[in-house]
Amino acid sequence: MPPIRDKFTIHSRAVVCQDVELKGDITIGPGTVVHPKATIFAIAGPIVIGSGCVIEEAAIIVNRRKEVMRVGDNNLFEIGCRVECPSVGNFNTISTRARIHYTVRISNYCVIGAACLVVPTDDETLDDYTSIFGPAAERRTWSGRGRIQEADLRLKHAEYLREMLPKFNRLRRGDGA
Amino acid sequence: MAPAIHYYCPCQSGESVQTPPPPHMASSSASFHPLHCLFFCEECDAVRCNRCVSIEVSGYYCPNCLFEVPSASVRAEKNRCARNCFSCPICRSTLQVVASDPPDGGDGRPSVSLSNVGEPPFFLYCNHCRWDSAEVGITFEKPTGLAAQLQKFEDSAPESLEFERLKEHFEPFLRTSSLSSSLSHVPSTSSHHLPTSSATAAASAALARDVPGVGKYNPLARSRVGRDRTANKDEMPEYKSRMEIGVLGQLGSEGDGSDVEALRRMELAEEIASLEQRWGNSWTTSLRTSDLRPLRIPLHSKVSKRCPTCRHILIKPEQKAQSVRYKIKLVAANYLPAMTVALPHTQGADAARRPQAKAPSASDDRNAGAMMAGKSYPFHLALTNPLYDPIQVRLSVQRMHVTAVTDSTAPEKARRTPFAISLPTSSFPVAAFAEAWEYDDDDDMFGLEDDELGLEMGRTRDKDGKGKVKTVGVLEKRANVTVVGGEVVIGKEARGYVKFNMLVSYTYRSDDPLPSEDGAGTPSRTVAKTPEVKTFTFYTVVDLGPILPREEKVDPDI
């Protein structure tokens, strides 16, 4: 296996803490907040993360496939989740300890509930506004009501973190190859 | 199944029998309980279980908002929370009251800052599954007092109106007959015990009340059952229901036509509401998930429990709904030694199997967890002393009569003694319980960093490996835990589970002076030479697990 060459492109307005484990070719967009102890592994292919995302502690974002893994804007990856999907859209919420396989593609405004395992055997795309909940990972479609309030909350969340995290954690600056 | 120990409560066995039933019978499992469910009455010196204690409600509260509801309004609100607490029909979690989104600027970004209060219409929103009540058409103009706003809606449901009509119809007859029957019945029903609280008195009067059309149940005079069936029936006119019976079916609450149509047209399994989603309703509602409505959260009650014989309070919770503590908490775990049982050969096998790269054959895997017929196995009993005084424990196995359990083809001797248990016969001490800070940093006290009660695998395994060390007797003493070993010898033709009743009696020094003998309940109180020593005896059942027959073929039982 070829050795993984680290190449981090971190936007100047992103907040990435020192303790984050980064590996491989990673691009992080403006306004994204990565909490300490998060893990982003671009093992086989690169990872591109959009703007305004919040990646909390112990979250694991892994790309084990050759093609680019694209994560969109304003997503929330809560504590302990593990995401391997090749593409994630905008304004999604992946709750605590959820696990999503590389066979799934997530669109926009989806909610993966806490501790849900989204592990279908075949390739699958989750439509917009899908909500997965419960121990059996049942699905239903969100009507979309309340999404503006939630989007507003997400923006405020990211803004608050961008302001407070640097006061208490050391930041990692983007470095080249 | 892991080996377990359960404790015996004598409430089921009647007043004269004190020994527990044979454990191999399925019906006897009702008398045996794990220690954490049991209570202990200090006055009677007896073990009480949840079946024999008498229960009184000490308060009602909503589990969501923790508001204490006075008992008067419980009935009025139909046992549900009167404030804004609703449960999501899909996932049964709590619903949140949210405002609607402000009108969109058109490009997705919020153009105006959202005000704190939000905009009407308000609706209920589930944070877990993202269901909202606007899907069933329930919206509110104000964010408070939602239950009242929904109440009008609920009350106009046809089932509710029908129920009200039925109640009005029967009420005059119930009132007159309850007056007459309560006067005549109270003396006869008080033979068991005197209901001391108004709640139980009301309950027994309600049970004894005459229902028109049903014969009176008099437990003392059974011969009169068939006689008086039509005494009250002639006074009641015909009841006319509010609407035709078939109309209700079309509204979706009965089965038949409309449901079959819906089932024919359905595409996904999620369209039909599951049982957990539907059984919280007061009456049958339609089967479709899209028809499920949010329900007000049912109230929970805090109960206090009393000993049935001496009326001493065993459990009394605090009045506040938020606190989980108890004013009075007489649980058996504070009086009886906690016992756990383990089969060391299973744990040894588990630990030994992991480092092996290749697992042994499938039958060995299965057999490592259970016991095979024709062999003998040691087992470990760990006793934990909860008292602040050391105790002396004596164990004895109750002799069992295994009569005609299996089929007639099995030989006689196998049925009589499928297994034999040997336990240490002499009494052994268990040290007193002391708080953790009382110990010095003594490594011998704590041994390994093992949280399990009393089972030290490393030490016992070494002992067994050294050859024939004693398996029956006190194996280890550590803090307030003592591990004793016993042995079970399984007969060649044995089947079923290894379960045996064990009598445990322990002596301890008590502070209070002994009163004169009252002789009630199970224990055998013996006054020893020094007047402070007391003995308590209780029965347990030890279940060591299934027996695997030696031959692999399935024998034609049954």
UniProtKB/TrEMBL annotation, chain A:
Q: Which UniProt keywords apply?
A: Cytoplasm, Cytoskeleton
Major localization class: cytoplasm
- Set out the biological process GO terms recorded for this chain's protein: mitotic spindle organization
The record's GO molecular-function terms, alphabetically, read: dynein complex binding
- Where is the protein found, in the record's own terms? Cytoplasm, Cytoskeleton
Sorted alphabetically, which SUPFAM superfamilies does this protein's record hold?
A: Trimeric LpxA-like enzymes (SSF51161)
Q: Name one GO cellular component term.
A: dynactin complex
* Family per record: Belongs to the dynactin subunits 5/6 family. Dynactin subunit 6 subfamily.
What is the protein's known function? Part of the dynactin complex that activates the molecular motor dynein for ultra-processive transport along microtubules.
Q: What is this protein called?
A: Dynactin subunit 6
From TrEMBL, chain B:
Where does the record place a coiled coil?
none
Q: Which Pfam families match?
A: Dynactin_p62
Domain of life from the UniProt record: Eukaryota
Where does the UniProt annotation locate this protein? Cytoplasm, Cytoskeleton, Microtubule organizing center, Centrosome; Cytoplasm, Cytoskeleton, Stress fiber; Cytoplasm, Myofibril
Q: Does the keyword section mention Coiled coil?
A: yes
> Would the keyword Acetylation be found if you checked this record's keyword annotation?
yes
Which cellular component, as a GO term, is one annotated location?
A: stress fiber
Per UniProt, the keywords (alphabetical) are: Acetylation, Coiled coil, Cytoplasm, Cytoskeleton, Isopeptide bond, Phosphoprotein, Ubl conjugation
The protein's matches in InterPro entries, at most eight in alphabetical order, are given as: DCTN4
Q: Where is this region: Disordered?
A: 347-367
Q: Into which family does the record put it?
A: Belongs to the dynactin subunit 4 family.
Q: Please describe the quaternary structure of this protein.
A: Subunit of dynactin, a multiprotein complex part of a tripartite complex with dynein and a adapter, such as BICDL1, BICD2 or HOOK3. The dynactin complex is built around ACTR1A/ACTB filament and consists of an actin-related filament composed of a shoulder domain, a pointed end and a barbed end. Its length is defined by its flexible shoulder domain. The soulder is composed of 2 DCTN1 subunits, 4 DCTN2 and 2 DCTN3. The 4 DCNT2 (via N-terminus) bind the ACTR1A filament and act as molecular rulers to determine the length. The pointed end is important for binding dynein-dynactin cargo adapters.
Q: What is this protein called?
A: Dynactin subunit 4
Protein species of origin: Suillus placidus
